[in-house]
């Protein structure tokens, strides 16, 4: 199932030290066409080769694969609407500045919230309690008014994770319990979860040594990084391996609406199929239109429900994919793109944060070239 052209290219990027490992999967019409694993999933403290079933920290792929999918199901069931004001569910947002923010704004990153803030900073928050987190977000001043601009923000999907909990009939219920009940179990997923079991550690690709990237980011943004009296150690100083890389998600006990999902390429593909009308088992086929529809026309980025669209300028989809293709990236080095007309799925999992000093390599050019090569190889196969 491996493809020589794709393998040669990805190996060249491993040799260039863009990332130590890569697992890819390319599918068409529900069938896996190409897949392989290259490099080492773990380099430090030991060397473990990547396999096609290596588990990766998917980082922000959590947003569409879990939070976006669950929101689509709630929309389908009429339990929420895109134009619902979030102040209906969180009274903290019933203010002049934030009263008009809708669920659609959160799903399309047009709420006006800033991109990121370290909840774990002692200057920000003393605990990971849901109510306090919501209050802190509600108190943050918006960068711009809702619908004015796309600003990709973790805060949007952290709120959506809390919203999903509140809408659930069994509330209070934990977010990871909902994901198991509504996604993982129905799809028969065995290696997809938040907070992987400790005995799976050697099957998981390693991430950064400590949290030096986030620590430096906090310093640059003026957040406190050292505390004398604080019950939570915000910056890990050991090899992050088998636990979530994202600092906020780690602070939230490894479970959140914006990050924390671990999975393999094949099980990521099983979830990806839920966004295609001919293969979804979780949604009604017509609901899948939400993911290829541009809700941000005229703005700086083309966004659908939980996804970026390929018509976005400089999208990592590359020009090889149709403009209504939809996809998402993960900070750890992961990527998913789906082309709805051809029912093609492109998955590239890397661990670019592992075994290298800062700065991490921006691998967007690698992602584009991967999509180009995969499309070329699929087209050759269809001609032959």
Question: Can you put this structure into words, describing what you see?
Answer:
This protein has 384 residues and is of the alpha+beta class. The protein has a domain at 4-58 and 190-208 and 239-246 and 262-383: Beta-lactamase, CATH 3.40.710. It has ten helices and ten strands. The protein has helices spanning 4-15, 62-76, 103-108, 130-139, 154-167, 175-184, 212-221, 247-251, 265-272, 364-383; strands at 21-28, 31-42, 48-49, 56-59, 193-194, 261-263, 308-309, 326-330, 334-339, 344-350. The strands form two sheets. It has a seven-stranded antiparallel beta sheet with strand order 3-2-1-10-9-8-7, sandwiched between helices. Strands 4-6-5 form a three-stranded antiparallel beta sheet. The longest helix is centred in the C-terminal third of the chain and has 20 residues, at 364-383.
């Amino acid at each position: 199932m491996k493809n020589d052209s794709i393998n040669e290219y990805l190996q060249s990027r491993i040799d260039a030290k863009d990332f130590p490992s890569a697992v890819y999967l390319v599918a068409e019409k529900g069938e896996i066409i190409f897949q392989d694993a290259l490099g080492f999933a773990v380099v430090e403290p030991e060397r473990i080769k990547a396999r096609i079933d290596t588990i990766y920290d998917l980082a922000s792929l959590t947003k569409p694969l879990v939070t976006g999918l669950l929101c689509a199901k709630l929309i389908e069931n009429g339990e929420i609407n895109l134009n619902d004001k979030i102040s209906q569910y969180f009274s903290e947002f019933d203010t002049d500045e934030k009263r008009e923010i809708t669920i659609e704004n959160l799903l399309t990153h047009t709420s006006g919230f800033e991109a990121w803030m370290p909840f774990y900073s002692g200057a920000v928050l003393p605990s990971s309690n849901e109510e306090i987190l919501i209050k802190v977000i509600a108190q943050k001043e918006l960068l711009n008014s809702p619908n004015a601009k796309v600003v990709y923000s973790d805060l949007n999907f952290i709120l959506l994770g809390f919203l999903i909990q509140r809408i659930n009939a069994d509330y209070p219920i934990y977010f990871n319990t909902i994901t198991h009940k509504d996604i993982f179990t129905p799809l028969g997923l065995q290696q997809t979860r938040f907070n992987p079991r400790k005995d799976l550690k050697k099957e998981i690709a390693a991430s950064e040594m400590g949290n030096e990237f986030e620590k430096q980011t906090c310093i640059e943004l003026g957040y406190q990084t050292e505390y004398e009296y604080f019950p939570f150690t915000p910056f890990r100083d050991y090899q992050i391996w088998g636990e979530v890389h994202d600092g906020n998600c780690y602070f939230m006990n490894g479970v959140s609406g914006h990050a924390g999902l671990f999975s393999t390429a094949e099980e990521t593909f099983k979830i990806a199929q839920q966004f295609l009308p001919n293969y979804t088992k979780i949604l009604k086929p017509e609901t899948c239109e939400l993911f290829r529809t541009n809700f941000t026309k005229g703005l700086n980025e083309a966004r659908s429900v939980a996804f970026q669209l390929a018509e976005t300028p400089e999208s990592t989809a590359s020009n090889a994919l149709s403009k209504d293709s939809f996809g998402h990236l993960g900070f750890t080095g992961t990527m998913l793109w789906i082309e709805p007309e051809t029912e093609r799925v492109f998955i590239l999992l890397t661990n670019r944060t592992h075994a290298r000093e800062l700065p991490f390599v921006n691998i967007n050019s690698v992602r584009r070239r991967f999509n180009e090569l995969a499309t070329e190889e699929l087209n050759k196969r269809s001609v032959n």
